[in-house]
Amino acid sequence: MQKSILITGGARSGKSALAEELTLGLGRPAVYIATAEARDDEMRARIARHRDRRGPDWRTVAAPIALAQALDDSDGEAPRLVDCLTLWLTNLMLDGRDWEAATEGLAACLARQRAPVLLVTNEVGAGIVPENALARAFRDAAGLVNQRIARVCDEVWLSVAGCPVKVKPR
Amino acid sequence: MQKSILITGGARSGKSALAEELTLGLGRPAVYIATAEARDDEMRARIARHRDRRGPDWRTVAAPIALAQALDDSDGEAPRLVDCLTLWLTNLMLDGRDWEAATEGLAACLARQRAPVLLVTNEVGAGIVPENALARAFRDAAGLVNQRIARVCDEVWLSVAGCPVKVKPR
Amino acid sequence: MQKSILITGGARSGKSALAEELTLGLGRPAVYIATAEARDDEMRARIARHRDRRGPDWRTVAAPIALAQALDDSDGEAPRLVDCLTLWLTNLMLDGRDWEAATEGLAACLARQRAPVLLVTNEVGAGIVPENALARAFRDAAGLVNQRIARVCDEVWLSVAGCPVKVKPR
């Protein structure tokens, strides 16, 4: 009964809270697979805030780069929540990895999981075209990652001001 | 028969026109609660454009900061339209106010209204992460305000190219 | 049996692929009306990528500015796909044209077509307000073009991570 669900939305649109609720609805305790790296104080504060909101129902695993490995390693009974793909892509790009190959690897990995996987990602492409070429490249890559992973997921949700909108299947 | 409705969307996505239509559908004349402050020519032009589109069905009240007070003062028979929460948040932040406390105050205020309240807000979090720390803080705050107010509203609408999409309740 | 369909979404959200699929579902071969101008290498690469994805089912016409003319000239049996309105608006603005008049002209042109027309556009207004006044003006104009054209279209779709969401009619 493998099931994979992608949750997307803008910044502070309630994606993580929705993802946590959906994950615990599929089984508890659950595994939280964190892709964030605490590179600066702002990020450390955000990680701490997210961790505070989660309760004792969660076991946390860090996977800033080796996400497919973390999914394979944690595959059992418990649902897994990956938070989030956009930070994972950032880490891949900053580390000079082949993000397209990694995305294909993740898509294949999702198909072989037995326990459910929920993935949080971000909408970053609905603003004005960035002046910065790197920001444009990241924006394009993030959109392509979202499309590729959405294609292999059973469900895709968009969070709007905390309100969940199911966009796949409809 | 209190009813509160939040209308969100990107810039020039038809939010205000939708909000005005929904408001007048709940009763006329209506009260327009403007949070805009005419800080520069661009803003003055935008305020004038919006005011031109509205007809004699509207009585206008200015509330750049004291929004809950304006709602309490205008609570009677007529529906109220607040346009918009994003500018209200901007005013709070520029004025050094505690926007989180003000948002809680607004949520409580909405719960005690007797006449309907419609609120326009903006999606500002679906672009690339801003390089500017203040812009990032504003983007986060705007997302949190939208979530908090959406939670206490009976209905939430997303305007896409002028097409209304109801995201709560579904 | 004229039919016009607007497809919107963020960058790399799967708009073009969706539009191509919907167009070929209405008849083949189809006409691809490209508004892109190859101003730099990044744009040339993007044009080539899009062209590679399209097959021999497509005849391509370039219309960076004279879009209504290209629609009138190609009106027959075959469905037409315009990709995209945001680049068309960019071209109009860079060329110093009256984009509002051109948009009214396009709306009128769409109403007189006999064969179907699909139009791709971009969501550019859901990020933080740009610091740059020109970017703000473009963002406003793009939103207004989307609203105006959506109003005369029979259908409007929003693409989210490659998942089509019909927003008109609902």
UniProtKB/TrEMBL annotation, chains A, B, C:
The keyword Transferase applies. CDD domains: CobU (cd00544). It is an enzyme of class 2 (transferase). Its EC number is 2.7.1.156, 2.7.7.62. GO terms for biological process: cobalamin biosynthetic process. InterPro entries: CobU/CobP (IPR003203), P-loop_NTPase (IPR027417). Keywords: ATP-binding, Cobalamin biosynthesis, GTP-binding, Kinase, Nucleotide-binding, Transferase. It comes from the Bacteria. One of its GO terms (molecular function) is GTP binding. The active site is at H50 (gmp-histidine intermediate). PANTHER family: BIFUNCTIONAL ADENOSYLCOBALAMIN BIOSYNTHESIS PROTEIN COBU, PTHR34848. Belongs to the CobU/CobP family. This is Bifunctional adenosylcobalamin biosynthesis protein. It comes from Roseivivax isoporae LMG 25204.
